[in-house]
Design goal:
By secondary structure, the protein is an alpha/beta fold. It has 13 helices and 14 strands. The strands form four sheets. The chain has a seven-stranded parallel beta sheet with strand order 5-2-1-9-10-13-14, with helices on both faces. A hairpin with a 6-residue loop joins strand 6 (about 155-160) and strand 7 (about 170-175). Helix 1 (about 25-40) crosses helix 13 and helix 4 (about 110-125) packs across helix 5. The protein binds guanosine-5'-diphosphate (GDP) and calcium ion. Guanosine-5'-diphosphate (GDP) binds next to helix 1 and helix 2.
Length: about 350
């Protein structure tokens, strides 16, 4: 085989793979999972348990950034440059709203995207739970996975910051911290409001309990994977499942890749390194999350430390440069726990 060919995939993929996903990082990882399914001609069913704690009400519309990023990315509707939102987007409604002086003006609400939020909000108003709304939206986008919100209940991550305008300490919605303030203000705490009382969405515990493999993408360990794990019942389901649980580091070479992993890891007191995040998740054998953990080749030296924490570990290239490169990461994840 010429060296440019993708690495040899395993003969057969597990029948049921469940992935705990945030937005952009999770969605790109899922493209690799689906590429591997395609490459091996497997009839694997992929179920995604997606974070909903980034959800926000804007101008009367319910916006679910992580659900939509996964849905648009896998449904080929994403703006690949931005990584979020609709391709060929226009911003007329946003401009009109700003002309009325209506806040928030910092939230990117595109005209095409608004249609999704209108459908969602109308269905929620009519009494449908978010899980059913998501299924309805996916009938258009056909993402090739079953996309499950982690919960149908309202959960919103807030971040306690020093407000740059007033100098006072206050809690703002995660989106305000991340988009308006670009994560550049001092953060003191991450507070997932409503998480303690949330119930897992329909099918979530089954998807974990009946999986043959659970994958944790390089999604944000605090505000994506962290909030999924915080839904009461999900940790227990992960502890109990017969499926191995393998994660992929979103930290490469002692730095975050894209996104705000660094600031938020520091807020919760986790070392910003591939090994630090693995230790934070912990080994399943001692009540943690992971059986296996992939670190990037530049973090080869972290392998021994992760092994010492009771987690099988390997160093492989972790840049999701294209779908085949990402599919190779999934092959490595499978090898680790085979
Ligand atoms: P969000 O909800 O849109 O912030 O997306 P996620 O939480 O799913 O993923 C964001 C994380 O993905 C970032 O914090 C990065 O650490 C990670 N990430 C992005 N691109 C790559 C990549 O190419 N390789 C790896 N290993 N991690 C990545
Ligand atoms: Ca997110």
């Amino acid at each position: 085989m010429p060296p440019s060919q993708p690495s040899q995939p395993p003969a057969r993929l597990p029948a049921r793979i469940t992935v705990l996903s945030g937005g952009v990082g999770g969605a790109r990882f899922l493209q690799g999972v689906l590429r591997l399914v395609e490459r091996t001609s497997s009839d694997t069913a992929v179920t995604v348990v997606a974070n909903t704690a980034d959800d926000i009400w804007v101008h009367g519309l319910k916006v679910c950034p992580d659900l939509d990023t996964v849905m648009y990315t896998l449904g080929d509707g994403i703006d690949t440059e931005r990584g979020w939102g609709r391709r060929a987007e226009t911003w007329n409604a946003k401009e009109e709203l700003a002309s009325y002086g209506v806040e928030p003006t910092w939230f990117g609400l595109g005209d095409r995207d608004i249609a999704t939020h209108l459908v969602r909000t109308q269905m929620l108003d009519a009494g449908f739970p978010l899980s059913e709304v998501t299924a309805a939206l996916c009938r258009r986008w056909q993402p090739g996975v079953e996309l499950l919100p982690m919960t149908d209940d309202r959960v919103e991550t807030h971040v306690v910051i020093d407000d740059p305008a007033s100098g006072e300490r206050r809690a703002v919605h995660f989106q305000e911290y991340w988009i308006r303030h670009q994560a550049a203000v001092l953060a003191h705490a991450v507070v997932p409001i409503g998480l303690d009382e949330a119930k897992p969405g329909p099918g979530v515990l089954e998807a974990i309990g009946e999986a043959d493999l659970v994958l944790v993408p390089p999604s944000n360990p605090v505000v994506s994977v962290g909030t999924i794990l915080g839904v009461p019942g999900i940790r227990d389901a992960l502890a109990a499942t017969k499926a191995p649980v393998v994660g992929v580091s979103g930290i490469i070479g002692q730095d975050h890749v894209h996104g705000m992993a660094r600031q938020l890891l520091e807020v919760i007191g986790v070392e910003v390194s591939a090994a630090g995040v693995a230790e934070h998740y912990g080994a399943r054998a001692v009540g943690g999350l992971l059986d296996g953990w992939l670190v990037d080749t530049v973090d080869e030296a972290a392998v021994a430390r992760v092994n010492a924490a009771g987690i099988r570990c390997r160093a492989v290239p972790l840049w999701m440069t294209d779908h085949d490169a990402t599919a190779d990461m999934v092959v490595a994840a499978l090898d680790l726990v085979r």
